[in-house]
Design goal:
- This protein has helices at about 5-10, 15-25, 25-30, 35-65, 75-110, 120-155, 180-185, 190-225, 235-245, 250-260, 265-270, 285-310, 315-325, 330-360, 360-370, 385-395, 400-420, 425-430.
- By secondary structure, it is mostly helical.
- The two termini are about 45 Å apart.
- About 75% of the residues lie in helices and about 0% in strands.
- It has two domains: about 5-155; about 190-430, MetI-like (MetI-like fold, Orthogonal Bundle), CATH 1.10.3720.10.
- It has 18 helices and no strands.
- InterPro entries: MetI-like, MetI-like_sf.
- It is found in: Cell membrane.
- It is a multi-pass membrane protein.
Length: about 425
């Protein structure tokens, strides 16, 4: 190792190294006599400017203007180019900041007379310390373009006027600010979007709470019964109760869709016909919603049942014996021993059940495609937010409105999950360890 000379310590100026690095990446390292590192930074910056300079310029122009010539400029492509340019610039800024910090750190070491590693020692140190980052970085970069870029595209699309009647390249898109959100919340277009959003959002909340709570309650009730020592043939009963989980969900939904058919379904023709009844399961939103809740309860309770069954078997019998000695009733033992233990162990998974049903597209679409239609709304009577977004995107071509609703949907799910997870005792106990 080489040590900076005492005379060089006072003359070496870290501020000068920082200024040189800001002017051109690598100059600060060259000033610090770290020639290999300086040349590498210099090559990276020059290569970035020469190869991507024109693309970045075109991309930034595109995302700001979304095109100027109708029939020639494609606003969507320009928007994507602009987002890619922003990501590349973010990467470049990160490397540039790293270049400045590195130059300043080495300059301070030289000024203070700290030992400076030789190129071979520095390379070995970088390999030893940065070994994990060399393998993680390619995956992170890929993640940015596969996950972050589509999210950014959806986010930005919500602030444009992209619709069925305004599609590029025939027409150019424009930035409209929060106009799409105002149509949803204020109803400045006559109230159609606001009324539909309120209706769909309300049903989504009711659907999530009622369907999920019923499947959890039924799963817990059956698990308690099967776990009772007085019940015989436990294995057979557990096998029968888990069978609905073994059948693919989409098959079960299609079968139930046929069973609830108004004209030839088994529910009307074979079951309700005994009581001289025939209900419009697929024509009246009220009955369709009831059918959907019953089907989701049937689909969801086996998983909850299996989950609770395993947890109940881990509850110590000594607790119940101590409760019997204290004269606790069956309900008191359930309230103070069984339920807290079960919820403590399963709270994160139960929260995921609610979040999953909030975005449960399959059952809504496969059963009746979100129908029946409702007069004065552009969503079906059983559409939830996610199925409404699907219809807006692939059937009505209201892309910007679909993107705006997607942002709202994402914020709701994210906020709900963060709020619930941070208040779950299991996570609080984990933080204390």
């Amino acid at each position: 190792m080489s040590i900076a000379k005492p005379t060089a310590k006072k003359q070496h100026n870290p501020n000068k190294a920082v200024l040189l690095s800001i002017l051109l990446a690598g100059l600060g390292q060259i000033y610090n006599r770290r020639y290999i590192k300086g040349v590498l930074f210099l090559i990276l910056e020059v290569s970035f400017i020469l190869t991507l300079g024109s693309f970045l310029n075109h991309g930034i122009w595109g995302i700001l203007t979304l095109g100027t010539l109708e029939g020639t400029d494609h606003s969507i492509i320009l928007l994507i180019y602009g987002l890619i340019s922003i990501i590349l610039i973010a990467f470049a800024i990160t490397l540039y900041v790293a270049n400045v910090k590195d130059a300043k750190k080495d300059a301070i070491k030289i000024r203070d007379g700290v030992k400076i590693l030789t190129p071979r020692e520095a390379l070995k140190n970088v390999w030893d310390v940065g070994f994990p980052y060399f393998f993680v970085t390619p995956g992170l970069i890929m993640l940015v373009f596969i996950v972050v870029l589509p999210l950014l595209f959806t986010f930005t699309l919500a602030f444009t006027d992209y619709s069925q009647y305004n599609q590029p390249p025939r027409a150019l898109l424009s930035w409209v600010g929060f106009e799409n959100f105002e149509r949803l919340f204020i109803g400045n277009d006559g109230g159609v979007w606001r009324d539909t959003f309120v209706s769909v959002f309300s049903w989504t909340v009711v659907w999530t709470l009622v369907a999920t709570t019923l499947q959890i309650s039924l799963g817990l009730f059956l698990a308690l019964i099967v776990n009772d020592p007085r019940v015989k043939f436990k294995r057979l009963i557990r096998t029968i109760l888990i069978l609905p989980w073994a059948v693919p969900a989409f098959v079960t939904i299609l079968v139930f869709s046929a069973m609830f058919n108004d004209r030839f379904g088994a529910v009307n023709t074979d079951i309700l016909a005994i009581f001289n009844l025939s209900l419009p399961w697929l024509q009246d939103p009220f009955y369709t919603r009831i059918a959907l809740i019953m089907i989701q309860t049937w689909l969801g309770f086996p998983f909850v049942f299996a989950l609770f069954t395993g947890i109940l078997q881990s509850v110590s019998k000594d607790w119940y014996e101590a409760a019997d000695v204290d004269g606790a009733s069956r309900m008191q033992k359930f309230k103070h021993i069984t339920l807290p233990h079960v919820l403590f162990a399963t709270a994160p998974l139960l929260i995921m059940q609610y979040a999953g049903n909030f975005n449960n597209f399959n059952i809504i679409y496969l059963f009746n495609e979100g129908g029946p239609p409702v007069r004065g709304q552009n969503a079906g009577g059983t559409d939830i937010l996610i199925s409404w977004v699907y219809n807006l995107t692939f059937e009505l071509n209201q892309y910007s409105m679909a993107a705006a609703i997607t942002i709202i949907l994402g914020l709701i799910v994210t906020g709900f999950a963060i709020f619930q997870f941070t208040r779950t005792r299991a996570f609080k106990e984990e933080e204390k360890t």
